[in-house]
Amino acid sequence: MNSRDENITLRIKFITFFFLFLSLVLIIRLFQKQVLESRNYLVQAKSQQQFSKIELAQRGKIYFHDSADDLTKSYAMAYDIKNFSIFVVPKNVKDKHSVASKLAPFAGTSEMIIYDQINNDKTYLPALKKGLSYDDADKIEALELPGVYVLPEYKRYYPEGDFSGQILGFVDGEGNGKYGLEGFYDKELKGSSGKITGEKDTLGRVISLLSEEAPRDGTSYLLSVDRSVNFYMYQALKEAVESYQAESGLAVAVDIKTGKIIGMVSVPTFDPNKFQDYANAGQQELFKNPTIANTYEPGSIFKPIIVASGLDSGKITPDSASTFGATVTVQGYTIHTAEDKAFGHENIGDILKHSDNVGMVWVGSQIGSPTIYDYLSKFSLSEKTGIDLTGENIGIIQPLKDWGEIGRATISFGQGISVTPIQLAMAYAAIADKGIMMKPQIVDKIIQNDGKVADIEPVEVRRVISENTASDLTKMLIGVVEEGYGKKAGVPGFWVAGKTGTAQIPNQDKPGYQEGVFIHSFAGFAPANDPRFALLVKLDKPKNAKFAESSVAPVFGNIASYLLNYYYRIAPSR
């Protein structure tokens, strides 16, 4: 064999080996694809034939009562509005210029801006546009643009704006309830989304449904708050805050028999529809409900609580009396009457009528610190009330061992101790209800998504004082309104019981109290001969009134008159 033949033979062998090697590679590759990776391809093929669709649940509604005559009549204060959002998956968009041009009119922006957003191969982008109407959603879907999706979503809406914002709270951008009732019952209000799974053919047409899990809409709540009462209270309070140039104010009304809140307002407040604007402005404090979240030293409206503890324990009687000057010194501290006036000989009713700080120091000494401390606990002032709203705080009561004589003396007239307005309102409600403390509740009925309605039953906490004690104290508080500093809280034709309070405000950075600024409060109940409601009104740092008798007492009388004549519709009894 010559060299030429040898070269030809070598080439033939090389070519043969090459094709054998190539065949072996192909066989191995086919084995890998058809055997080893067959499951992956089956799953991929199945995923291309199957589809799934999430069906959003609708958040439950929040209602206020809307008629004192018909308790089934209600008004939706918070509900979902269904709208749509445009989503684009750039990787699936073939003609990006065309898509940008067609979406621009719906997105409310320029074609170039949209093109810059989608000119990539990303598999996800945030919503191009939110809040589309049904009509616009239908128009976009009719365009059948590959990579463009119109998805439904729900947006929370509060039709009354800033009215009652701090009761309701809000729903944030992630769909989570924050503050108020939205926060407290977030899980129940949310419900749960549904899901549909099915198969489609190669043309994308649905050929069968494999499974269907329906969405479960959230639970709805009918609050005990009456819309008309709350609006009247809000307007009255807002006018008072403006008239007296107060920093802020609040009012809360509770049905004493049930503990249900029928009105709860504060100024300033916020519009839940615009919660993000307040957050951006650093005004998150407005989200808190001051009736349950803020603590303060109550001043003279606390005196009836001290008197109740003395009467109920037998340490004093309505006839207990002594003679008092304009000042008294306790452990080196001099305590004054409000205007440095000596009231002379007084019994317990006179001390409350005159709001005599010096007389109350004597009352406290007759009762004793351990008994006072015990009754503060009975009145639930050392614990949260448990109201069904997010953000409830608790007042501060110093340990008994730290009181000393001066601690007992100042607590006897409402300083050196802090409470929340809701704690104090419920304490007055207990006095009005013959000594029975109820749990405050703001939900009246629970409405399940299947339409079933469950009533929320009143919850009795405990008896805090006897019926006789409550009766004796009520007579004294009637005297405060009839003959004392509470005259402007009176309502023609009705007996009203209550107490004024002009409290000093502690310094934040040093011992002592701020100069020249006060908190004005009035707490009471009516009709005093057969009480139906308790009411507390509070103004922070009013400028145009020196004492609570001139500022909050008239506001109390105004709101009480509305409740008596238009909500409860009670016939005058005097």
TrEMBL record:
GO biological processes: cell wall organization
Pfam families found in the cross-reference section: PBP_dimer (PF03717), Transpeptidase (PF00905)
Predominant cellular place of this UniProt entry's protein: membrane
Transmembrane segments: 12-31
Source organism, top-level taxon: Bacteria
KW Iron (keyword) present: no
Limits of the Penicillin-binding protein dimerisation domain: 57-208
Keyword Manganese: no
GO molecular function term, any single one: penicillin binding
GO cellular component: plasma membrane
Sorted UniProt keywords: Membrane, Transmembrane, Transmembrane helix
Localization, UniProt: Membrane
Coiled coil regions, renumbered to chain: none
This protein's name: Peptidoglycan glycosyltransferase
Organism of origin: Candidatus Berkelbacteria bacterium CG23_combo_of_CG06-09_8_20_14_all_41_73
